[in-house]
């Protein structure tokens, strides 16, 4: 007999509660990797703000800035032509969209607990 979604959810909740009780550690969650909060450098904070954000949100805000200021190359949309703010982050006038995350990671630090 197949379990219903409701029964499966209750079973998973019981298992999680049991694990928390056994280990004494709070239940985790999806707060690692791309969803973990990061702190932007002062240069990057000019674009995304100074608050801690998930890495995915930082990338999203940088793309919003690029599109708002029309910084994609007209002939090759994969190229980003940096203005003064982005040039501080990228270290050069033009980068590809694939290269952008490498440069962003240099301006992000893991949140200190």
UniProtKB/TrEMBL annotation:
SMART domains the UniProt entry points to: SWIB (SM00151)
Superkingdom as given in the UniProt entry: Bacteria
Signal peptide: none
Pfam families in UniProt: SWIB (PF02201)
Molecular function via GO: isomerase activity
Swiss-Prot/TrEMBL keywords: Isomerase
Segments traversing the membrane: none
Domain DM2: 33-110
Span list, region Disordered: 1-40
Biased composition (Basic and acidic residues): 1-20
Protein name per its UniProtKB record: DNA topoisomerase I/SWI domain fusion protein
Organism: Sphingomonas dokdonensis
């Amino acid at each position: 007999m197949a379990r219903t979604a409701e029964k499966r959810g209750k079973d998973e909740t019981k298992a999680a509660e049991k694990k928390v009780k056994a280990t004494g550690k709070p239940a985790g969650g999806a707060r690692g990797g791309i969803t973990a909060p990061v702190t932007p450098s002062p240069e990057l904070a000019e674009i995304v703000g100074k608050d801690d954000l998930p890495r995915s949100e930082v990338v999203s805000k940088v793309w919003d800035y690029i599109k708002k200021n029309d910084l994609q190359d007209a002939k090759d949309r994969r190229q980003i032509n940096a203005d003064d703010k982005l040039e501080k982050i990228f270290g050069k006038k033009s980068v590809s969209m694939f290269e952008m995350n490498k440069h962003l990671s240099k301006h992000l630090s893991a949140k200190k607990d």
